[in-house]
Amino acid sequence: MIDNHRGPESDSQAVHRRAEQLDALDAILPFDRRDQLAALLTEDDVETLKHLASEGMGENTLRALASDLGYLEAWCQLATGAPLPWPAPESLLLKFVAHHLWDPVKRAEDPAHGMPANVELGLRAERLLRADGPHASGTVRRRLTSWSILTRWRGLAGAFGAPSLKSALRLAVKASNRPRQRKSKKAVTRIILTKLLEACAGDRPVDVRDQALLLTAFASGGRRRSEVAALHVEDLADEEPVRADPSDKDSPPLPCLSIRLGRTKTTTADDDEHVLLIGRPVTVLKRWLSDAQIKNGPVFRRIDQWGNIDRRVKRSEELTPWAKRRF
């Protein structure tokens, strides 16, 4: 792909220079992905990503922004023959929606409906497009959100809140009629959870910790690894016991615990989300805290090969590599 700011004669040198600049993000961008992005992004794009990294933006968020930016640059070049403009005009945003959310029935009658063939072939050649048919509405909305975020970080205002765009999105989602799919093909089911708990059914500290971690993550609604790893004792609060059968006043009471999650990936800045644990997860979690003598700081801690429990109380995510193997 041709550099958007230099002539064709400097194309390879410009790509190489951007790849070297992206080396600063090597902890976030995989090596092969970095080289692909260097060919797709402009000099200004790379500078924006480096700025976001220096501002402390989360790695997962920055990785998603970089991926979406690379896709947007490639799509715009193929669809318009020009680099991605900043800010994007309303007409370009509407074109993006039209190219990605379309009516399969109308496409069968009119091949020109939806994404043009040359744009589709170009994106497939870049290994940026794999889906057949219209995109998932969530993917389109996410890329528009990334586009909006990157526009704001450049100190510009876009037309992302325009009524015409909102209306086009609503109508296009309805017309595309794309069946909703499971977000993960490897979701942890009760059967899988039972097998995981059987694998750590002992009484060693590491077994008790792992049981508490698994039950807490599962029973609180399927928490993200980062949320489990960041959980602190200060985020836990005892609640009134609840009846196993609320309609039967003689049913046994079950222990109840609330977990303060604060702001999460799916909440807004003003939210302070709480979830409840009831029954066995509460019992196992409290056993772990009691056995490990953890009164403050991180709930789930590293345990060395001799059974020593990490006593540092600063917020950290050092459990994440372990959790990645479990979830």
Number of domains: 2
Describe the global form. elongated
Structural class by secondary-structure content: mainly alpha
**What percentage of the residues does DSSP assign to strands (E)?**
5-15%
Low-confidence stretches: 1-9, 264-271, 315-327
Task: Provide a descriptive summary of the structure in words.
This protein is mainly α and 327 residues long. It folds into two domains: 8-176, no CATH class; 190-326, Orthogonal Bundle (hpI Integrase, Chain A), CATH 1.10.443.10. It is 50% helix and 7% strand. It has helices at 11-22, 31-40, 43-54, 59-80, 90-100, 104-109, 117-125, 137-153, 163-176, 190-199, 205-219, 225-229, 280-291, 320-326; strands at 236-243, 253-262, 273-278. The chain has a three-stranded antiparallel β-sheet, covered by helices on one side. Helix 4 (59-80) crosses helix 8. Mean pLDDT is 79; it is low at 1-9, 264-271 and 315-327.
Topology:
Blueprint: H1 11-22, H2 31-40, H3 43-54, H4 59-80, H5 90-100, H6 104-109, H7 117-125, H8 137-153, H9 163-176, H10 190-199, H11 205-219, H12 225-229, E1 236-243, E2 253-262, E3 273-278, H13 280-291, H14 320-326
Helix pairs in contact: 1-2, 3-4, 4-7, 4-8, 5-9, 11-13
Features:
single chain, 327 residues, mainly alpha, hpI Integrase, Chain A, 2 domains, 3-stranded antiparallel β-sheet, 14 helices, 7% strand, elongated, disordered N terminus, disordered C terminus
